[in-house]
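Recap for those who missed Tuesday's class. We walked through two folding examples back to back. For each one, the amino acid string is listed first and its predicted structure tokens come directly after. Nothing is annotated here on purpose, so try labeling regions yourself before you check the end of the notes.
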Amino acid sequence: MNSKTNKLKTGSENSVIIVILAVLLVVVLAIVGVIVAKDNKGLATFDGGKVTKSEYKIYYQMFASYLQMYGYTSDEIPLQILDRAALDKMILSDAKSAGVKITDDQKKEVDDIFNDDQYIEYFKGLGLDLDDLREIYYNDYVISNYIDKLANEASDDVISEYIKSKYGEGEEIDMNEYDTSHILFQFSKDDGTTMTDEEKAELKTKAEEVLKRALAGEDFAALAKEFSDDSTAEQGGQYIMYMDGNTVEEYANAVKSMKVGQVNAALVESSYGYHIIKLNAINENGRLKNSNERQEYANTLFDDLETNKNLKRDEDALMKFVKEIDPDAYSTTDDSSNATDSSTTQDNGTEVEVTDESTQEVQQ
């Protein structure tokens, strides 16, 4: 009887222990869940997504030094990069909804990078997550393809309205495309130094001799290949331009006064050097097909995306994380608390610096 009682007692105790363990397990899982949820909260959130620390670190590696070079302060850089990362993910979401994908050739380009031991070692040395990095490379192509799709599918009327709004309503806007060719005799020398007045005079004499040959009817493309210092030389000097302010004023003004098929009778001098110019054709409204302006238009479609998708930034978490991954840029001795924070992050952080173009090969 006693043994039966003991057995029953032992079973009861086991049941209690199991219940206690179960409760503890629930508590532990709850704590872990809170920790994981906190860790996965993201530095920025928006409708349908977030920017994780791992993703942000990659963007920081790619863009921090460039923003610094362009005059952004250490206080401005983290938020600028966070917004860029968030915007990319928002656009990516829309791109996928539109059925845009990476092409096989683009995917191979990325995979070739991640199959290269040198790149892998470089990325690992920066402490980057290779899976996240590869995914960002893939995604960048998807984003680029999506922007191309939006640009290409926009109607001429839409692009016309965009150009008018960009340059101001009421202004007379030249919508033509000018197919020109030119031969450039540049002022800067191979060593990067500027020519003396005497050297410029010698260059002008050489340019005038070539101009005479062009005016006499010699093959302009052949002359360009032989004499031009411009990157267009191999294409016979062809340069497609628009009256949009992106071509040096002297060149554009000369083209405005020319007739189709004409070689400008005089050399045109600009800050680049002496130009011999020929106008091959004028394509009416050809500017509406200009890929640069179409892409600019496509990018304006994302202007309100951060607002529309309710972007929220955790700036405190952001600055804390940035100080961990780039302690040298954020070390300070302004006060004891900052000094303590700086020394802590310096012990635990990883110094980062972009010294290779590999992490920007597919970034726009």
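Example two. Treat it independently of the first, because the proteins are unrelated.
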Amino acid sequence: MRIDIITIFPQMFSTVFTEGIVRIAQEKKLLNIYIHNLRDFTQDKHKKVDAPPYGGGAGMVLRCEPIFKAVESVILDKRSRVVLLSPQGRVLTQKRAKQFLKYQQLILICGRYEGVDERVAEYLADEELSIGDYILSGGEIPAMVLVDVLARLLPGAVGDKQSIEKESFEQSRLDWPHYTRPRVFRRWRVPRVLLSGDHRKIELWRKKKALEKTKENRPDLLKEV
């Protein structure tokens, strides 16, 4: 998979993608990431990419011309997907993330300031995507989140396939509690069943605890079953 990120703050990505699973995916040639500075696609001698909104109001709006030029300079073919990262978009879920894997290329547009000229969403982007119901300073952090989610899903990126298949959201429930050494910490003990060696009992306990946690924290997931 190839991911192109269009941003006015390319330096924000300089270290994030050199660590963890994203680094591993790149080293294995499963993922290629390219960062593009939006200011390189403007004719303005001051490299300005924003302007006041028509109709008045606070803040500045990213102009459509440089964004169109940036996307058109990197888009490959019909297997490319252009995504505008925006609070107005559909919320990212594990299920939606998996659907992105069918594309050869993702082009991520990072919004900033008061927003992006609506013509980008209407005539250039294939979809708008949000990572939650809150407001960030821009689309850079959502882009990092999406890349991390996708890197873990690429076949061969994660060594143990089961660690993905049995984690939260994969079976319309949250994950079960995990424990490791020491067996006793400040009088708090690891549940005995996990030390029993009885794999059937352990599996039943894990399913029960996962269901309890889902009912408590994310009951909406159970409605999807």
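Answers for example two:
The beta strands are 2-7, 32-37, 50-51, 61-62, 80-91, 105-110, 115-116, 127-130, 184-185, 188-189.
The mean pLDDT is 93.
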